[in-house]
Amino acid sequence: RILPRLLSLSLPSSPTSKLLIRPSRLPPRGPFLPRCAALSQLAAPQTVDHSDEPQEVQVKLPLDRLFLPPGASVTPGDEEVVTARVLKGSNIVLGTYARGDAQVVNADFIKSSVRPDDCPRDGLPEFALVGRSNVGKSSLLNSLVRRKRLALTSKKPGKTQCINHFKINDSWYLVDLPGYGYASAPQVARKDWDEFTRNYFLSRDNLVSVFLLIDASIPAKNIDLDYASWLGQNKVPMTLVFTKCDKRKKKKNGGKRPEENVECFQNLIREYFEAAPPWIMTSSVTNQGRDEILLHMSQLRNYWRKH
Ligand code: GDP
């Protein structure tokens, strides 16, 4: 498991591996509200209403809100170097393990499993996509692999409640997990899916990170907050993927822009995590965040393979 190990590791020094951080060197956490307010001000346009334009401004995050890649760390004075390596629209710092093999060349549906024990046993690293129904999981999967209909495989009758494995570039897996929060599903069925997915999270040794999808066009939902806090409390490595970040109409979105919803969601789950989990803003309409997610997966994967 990557996350618990992250902060205790360091790399030999080289120009690009200077990103070494120890929790004790992080700036102390300031009071909760003022920092939240300061970030919101940065994210919000100051004079002109750009509500329909994509957010291009990269908000500068304090060091303790960044996700340092596995094996990386920050020494005092390196703050500028670290900030320059933050992936656009995220808090993820790019480290030495991100390589040129990030893009998807081949994507093949392998199998649907009804129990964690039935999943492929070849030990290849995998990333699991999970989220509330309608969050945009299929659209994101299709966008990552640049295929219009690959994720339809998981939407076929009988497969929506399965663990669906897609092999990427013959070397790693994207795993489509059952969506949660279906309004129409009977309570018993919902419980079964929960247990089945949780068992998978806790028992799957080659699971590098869960990618929890959250709709950034609406305010935080309790069911998503519960999911994120469960993952945090169980120390399951997690990346928050905020979807639908192209939807910027304030009125339709409960009065908040995507970056404000992103900020609020993190504030609500912070206490469940030792260090800031990685998060990234995406849109399957504009493909925002697609290459960044793939780079992030690449560095997690390459680190996982070596450790
Ligand atoms: P799933 O149930 O989680 O697999 O969600 P889908 O991928 O089927 O998407 C649900 C709905 O959200 C569909 O109407 C999509 O067109 C829409 N959608 C998905 N991703 C985005 C996005 O990034 N931006 C916008 N505006 N709509 C999206």
Q: Estimate what percentage of residues fall within beta strands.
A: 5-15%
Overall pLDDT: 78
Write out the CATH superfamily name of the domain at 96-306. P-loop containing nucleotide triphosphate hydrolases
Q: How large is the count of helical segments?
A: 9
Low-pLDDT residue intervals, each spanning 5 or more residues: 1-55
Reported by name, the CATH topology of the domain at 96-306 is Rossmann fold
Could you tell me the number of beta strands? 7
SSE topology string: HHHEEHHEEHEHEHEH
End-to-end separation in angstroms reads 10 Å
What this model shows, in words?
- The protein has helices at 2-6, 32-43, 79-84, 137-145, 152-155, 187-203, 222-233, 258-269, 290-306; strands spanning 107-113, 126-131, 163-168, 172-176, 207-215, 238-243, 279-281.
- The chain has a domain at 96-306: Rossmann fold (3-Layer(aba) Sandwich), CATH 3.40.50.
- A 7-stranded mixed sheet has the order 1-3-4-2-5-6-7, with helices on both faces.
- By secondary structure, it is of the alpha/beta class.
- 31% of the residues lie in helices and 14% in strands.
- GO terms for molecular function: GTP binding; metal ion binding.
- Belongs to the TRAFAC class TrmE-Era-EngA-EngB-Septin-like GTPase superfamily. EngB GTPase family.
Element layout with pairings:
Elements: H1 2-6, H2 32-43, H3 79-84, E1 107-113, E2 126-131, H4 137-145, H5 152-155, E3 163-168, E4 172-176, H6 187-203, E5 207-215, H7 222-233, E6 238-243, H8 258-269, E7 279-281, H9 290-306
Parallel strand pairs: 2-4, 2-5, 5-6, 6-7
Antiparallel strand pairs: 1-3, 3-4
Helix pairs in contact: 2-8
Bound molecules: guanosine-5'-diphosphate (GDP).
InterPro entries: G_ENGB_dom (IPR030393), GTP-bd (IPR006073), GTP-bd_ribosome_bio_YsxC (IPR019987), P-loop_NTPase (IPR027417)
Pfam family, one: MMR_HSR1
Domain EngB-type G: 123-307
